[in-house]
Hints:
Elements: H1 2-14, H2 23-30, H3 34-46, E1 50-53, E2 59-62, H4 63-70, E3 78-79, H5 82-90, H6 107-118, E4 126-129, H7 136-149, E5 159-163, H8 171-179, E6 180-181, E7 193-194, H9 196-199, E8 204-208, H10 215-227, E9 229-232, E10 235-241, E11 245-250, H11 254-257, H12 260-264, E12 268-271, H13 280-298, E13 301-305, H14 306-314, H15 320-334, E14 344-347, H16 354-357, H17 362-369, E15 373-375, H18 386-398, H19 406-422, H20 431-443, H21 450-465, H22 467-476, H23 478-491, H24 493-510, H25 516-529, E16 538-545, H26 549-561, E17 566-571, H27 577-590, E18 596-601, H28 606-611, E19 619-623, H29 628-640, H30 644-654, E20 668-673, H31 679-692, E21 700-703, H32 706-712, E22 722-729, E23 740-742, H33 743-748, H34 752-759, H35 765-778, H36 781-788, H37 793-810, H38 817-835, H39 846-852, H40 854-863, H41 865-871, H42 877-888, H43 891-896
Helix pairs in contact: 1-4, 2-3, 6-7, 13-14, 13-15, 19-25, 20-21, 20-24, 21-25, 23-24, 23-25, 24-25, 26-29, 29-30, 31-35, 36-38, 37-38, 37-40, 38-42
The site of adenosine-5'-triphosphate has 19 residues, from helix 7, helix 13 and helix 15.
Amino acid sequence: MKDTLLRQIYEQTLSGAYDQNTVASLSETLQVPKNKITFALQQLFQEGRLIKAEGKPVRFLSRAALENQYNLSISDTKIGNLELWLAGLAKEPADFEKLVGYDGSLASLVEQCKATISYPPNGLPLMLTGETGTGKSLIARLTYEYASRQGLLKPDARFVSVNCSEYANNPELLTANLFGYVKGAFTGAEQTTPGLIELADGGVLFLDEVHNLKGECQEKLFQFMDQSIYHRMGDNKTWHTSHVRLIFATTEDPEKVLLKTLQRRIPMNITVPNLSKRGTYEKVQMIHSIFKTEQQRLNVRIKISSTVFRLLVSYPFPENIGGLKSTIQSSCVQALFQINDSGEMEITAKNLPSALSKNISVASLNKLEEPSWIYIDELLDLDHSAGNDLAFYQEIIESLENPDTFFAVWKAESSWLIQHLSGENSALCEQRLYESVRHVCAGYHMELSSKDLETLQKALGSFLRQSRLLHFLQSQNPLQIEKLTLQMKKQKFRYYSMASEIDCMLGRAFDYKLNDLHRLVLALLLSGLEKQQSIPKRMGVILAHGLSTASSVSVCVNQLLDEYVFDAIDMPLSISQEQCIRELNDYLKKMDGIEELFLLVDLGSLEDVWKGLNIRNVNVGIINSLNLKMALSIGEGLKRGQPMEEIFETAKNTCTVSYHIERNREKQKLIICSCASGLGVAEKLKTVILDSLPPDSSIHVLTYDYNSLLLKGIEDLAFAEYQVICVVGTLNPNIDRLPFVALDDLILQESTNSLDLYLKSYMDPCALAIFKKNIVKNFSLSNIMNALTILNPTKLLEHVANAIDRLQTLIDCQLTNNTCFGLYVHVSCLIERLVMNRGIENYKQIEHFQTRQKQFIDAVCESFQDVEAFYGVHIPVEEIGYMFDYVKNDKNFQKCV
Ligand SMILES: Nc1ncnc2c1ncn2[C@@H]1O[C@H](COP(=O)(O)OP(=O)(O)OP(=O)(O)O)[C@@H](O)[C@H]1O
């Protein structure tokens, strides 16, 4: 009757007539009393052949029918909402895809299982070892499903599973059940019964907890493995044949618990990793998958608190996935009546077994419970990139198993992270963050491209977004992270220190604190980004007291040399020597990889500084003198790549100290005599002025070339020693703030006051009176002429005066007396110079003058014809230029023009 009932249910399940699989309906169809149907259904359900759909009335479904129909293995036995559950089944993935981690931590295991079961002709025996609850049974079943789907098994081939531990106290019974027995083989063997090996013919026999198999049974088993034949218990004559693919599983070490002969016959031994090795993301997937099943079973939307999520991910379940599953199931039972107004089941930490939440105080439990809920349906969508990132972080932590190689692992991983982050479209593109990161990097001489900076910025963005996940990762692996931090500080302090600075900056800018794991990953990222760049092998550091002394000198030298040779450490005056040294040591840590350091310190003895330095793999040269010249000399040596000692020697020699004291002194007073007519006139002027000065006068009189005076003014070094009172000459050189006294003024005595005026401050009144008297006497025209020329002054003056009269007629202008007298002197000197071949040859813009003042030039030429003829000279046009300059300032001439 049982078989008929099972067949009926099988067909009705296949045809979808689930409503006919009730006690009442089946009793009616099969014409069997309800109580007998109920009893048989109960038995079949316990055997795992039926699935029970709760409800009114209860319905039963054939497991085999559904498994064939959906081509999958069903582990559920009782279901809540049948329709929902069936909808879920339709979406179920095939065989190994049901295994969380099939393409992750279990990828190679899956490949091995597939290869072993497919090995021709009948597959190879496979041993699965692993802690309890790691998924050995599931993997065995999925291996069967895979073989079945691949057509490696007969269509009706079964997966027969036997748990050897159930027979631990009765090994005979296990042998009987495995190989079958004949009637009378033992007490109670009322009829000949086929064994499980026979039932599994063409399919898969899974022997779980195989370490419970007694030696005798093991021996029987390997005989069967060799030849596919066996005896039933109680009949040692008849051989039976069965072709079975065998899968074994044990939580023990097979080498310790199985006979060597059996071990040899199991060529493939696969270890199933325990939950803690699966990586956080796979744990999250498992939590999701288990809750999802419960959600379907209970037909409610489930949400869990973030604490529940954190605890489930971080708790080290001794029963592995089995433990996680039963914890989740029990939490759902506990929360069965915690359905909110929206019909959602809310699972909080209070619904978890006490073992999980024992580390959380009631207060913090309540506090922690307040915030976010996570819907099961959205669990995997927390952050799409979270999966990869978490696996990445996990891998970093796992690489710690072998600290010697983890930097190598990191190197590879960092390029993954860089790539990953470069492709990510981060929302956190704030210029402030970007600039701050750049600022920190620049402080470490790490010049990053904008793309690299963007990568860093995205990394920080990803930290901010995934803070919840990363914080529980941190809490999950505190020891590894501590160990890693120590290694990082030791080997890559530069990057760790940079990450810490970025952390501070983040704190200020976004009120966000990185945890150790963040900092490590950031440091790793920075070291990855810098792999293309070279940290300077040699560097200079200026260490000086004052708010910006060191930085000013270093900036100046770097600019002058156009090379970054100096860093600076500014020391406020209030800080102690120890603090300075501490700062310097911090700097040295930052500059991890530097080989030589040139240190310029302003204060403190050399010993104080170098004794306090923590030097490892760095040569530090210290010089206790700081000035720009010294810094420049050392900077130049650094730039040229000279050896350290040579650099210091050169600096020492170029910077020898010398001193000079310039005492305050009164400058001597000076009158400059400078004439466009030439130095000769100036010399004569000088003699006349000197003769006019009282004998005890301290005023100096010097001659100076007129053109040089125009060019250089009184900045000329020749005047450095003097305080120039005024210039006396024929033409005003018009020098700023330098008074001019015209010769003609002196001759005409019209403005003796002008010279008096300038000399008044430098002479006592008595001396000034003598000077004035002498000037009147000495500066009469004839006196001047006498002093000026070697020619006969009376004759010369007569000729010149006639020529100038004629000139005035030709240009039709009556010049002032001043101009006339000035011209007499000037032209007389001119003639004398020409006689002596010392004519002036240059005049500014002579062509311009020639074209513009042609009329004047012609007038001069004509009026001076007699003079030229008499003295046998020719007045060149340049000299006429100077005569014009004399005339042009005349107020009458200006009116005529
Ligand atoms: N990779 C996985 N993906 C999804 N669920 C899994 C996975 N591994 C195990 N499970 C689930 O975890 C539970 C325990 O797995 P299973 O019974 O196969 O472990 P086991 O190693 O055979 O344990 P034991 O040694 O105690 O028999 C099962 O409900 C199984 O469906």
